[in-house]
């Protein structure tokens, strides 16, 4: 049996993890977790505080080493692949803490991933090759993410919601086959939540998104599939409306 079949991979799945386990000094934060992410879906991971969501996220993006388990991406075993290499294979993660360069403008922040993708090694202001093409793409991204008016504003000066939009724009600038978002709504006000929700929904066609998110209204609105974690284990999985009615899920949330 080849690795892809052994991992439970099928034509629809892009990422499959099996038996993922990770402990910290004897405390098991993620315990024997199986997760299968289908292409072109938004798959959310929810659960009470301390459930192991961030740990699972870090395991899936290879920022943390698993004690046990396997990860298969597009049929290939990536259990030991380094994060940078995974990124080159189309897996891009955004960070819960804003990862934009504060002293660069919104435009300049978007130039960086685009140039990296185009294979530039020089800093962009010295490069002239394909510059107009990159400028067009930057303009398009700024527009799509509601940032056109902020093109020349330093990222550090942006209102928080726009900074988050810029961070998402830099994530999606790389045209990831699989984007992993860690709490994209964290710290956002109500209006920004609505806008960022729409931005993510707009990326969904043709992209696969795995999202850890606290805001259950957002999860309900965006998700095709929801995995509920509790105490490091998968408690339930399915469409939001189904898992939200699951008595074990309700108890896990109320218990908290
Ligand atoms: N680096 C670490 N060292 C020790 N304990 C950790 C570490 N990371 C997470 N934990 C513990 O693992 C559990 C799950 O944490 P986490 O994955 O951050 O949960 P969540 O994101 O669902 O709130 C928590 O009890 C947390 O204290
Ligand atoms: Mg967390």
Which key phrases capture this entry?
256 residues, alpha/beta, Rossmann fold, 6-stranded mixed beta sheet, 10 helices, 37% helix, binds magnesium ion
Write structural notes for this entry.
The chain is α/β, with parallel strands linked by helices and 256 residues long. It is built from ten helices and ten strands. It has two domains: 1-90 and 179-197 and 210-256, P-loop containing nucleotide triphosphate hydrolases (Rossmann fold, 3-Layer(aba) Sandwich), CATH 3.40.50; 97-175, no CATH class. 37% of the residues lie in helices and 24% in strands. A six-stranded mixed sheet has the order 6-7-8-3-9-10, with helices on both faces. The chain has a four-stranded antiparallel sheet with strand order 2-1-4-5, covered by helices on one side. The longest helix is centred in the C-terminal third of the chain and has 15 residues, at 190-204. It is globular, with a radius of gyration of 19 Å. The termini are far apart.
The major β-sheet equals: 6 strands, mixed
Tell me what portion of residues adopts beta-strand conformation. Answer: 15-25%
CATH level 1 class label of the largest domain: Alpha Beta
Shape: globular
